[in-house]
Automatic annotation (TrEMBL):
Residues 11-119 form the LOB domain. Pfam families: LOB. InterPro entries: LOB (IPR004883). PROSITE patterns: LOB (PS50891). This is Lob domain-containing protein 4. Belongs to the LOB domain-containing protein family. Residues 84-99 have a biased composition (Low complexity). It comes from Quercus suber. Residues 80-104 are annotated as: Disordered.
Length: 128
């Protein structure tokens, strides 16, 4: 997203400008079709149509969010394997978090409900 969109001067993205609609702060088109490149969206719109492009971009966002959640879960899993919470001895490295802190972080992380559609992911991050 352009800096001008985040501050006060909301310049609509090329897609919203062409479609003559209000460009929301979380517009799915804005990162891909900046206001200064209107022909880029016009070409894509001619071939695929705005609705289909919107669906494709939204699917991509959903997939990336799922991959991010899995990557975060993998990091927590690796940390838990490296520093088990049953050990009372803190790690020797001063840069790493204490087991007590990690335990509270993992509790807050695992309290979220995550639903993952494995059919759309391809390779699982849990396989070694």
């Amino acid at each position: 997203m352009k800096e001008s969109r985040k501050q006060g001067a909301m310049s609509p993205c090329a897609a919203c400008k062409l479609l003559r609609r209000r460009c929301a702060q979380d517009c799915v088109f804005a990162p891909y079709f900046p206001a200064d490149e209107p022909q880029k969206f016009a070409n894509v719109h001619k071939v695929f149509g705005a609705s289909n492009v919107n669906k494709m971009l939204q699917q991509q966002v959903d997939i990336l969010q799922t991959q991010l959640a899995l990557a975060q879960a993998e990091v927590v899993h690796m940390r838990m394997r490296q520093y088990p919470s049953s050990s009372n001895n803190p790690p020797d490295n001063n840069d790493s978090p204490s087991p007590k802190l990690m335990s509270s972080q993992t509790k807050s992380f695992f309290s979220m409900d995550m639903v993952v559609d494995q059919a759309n992911l391809g390779e699982s991050l849990w396989s070694c």
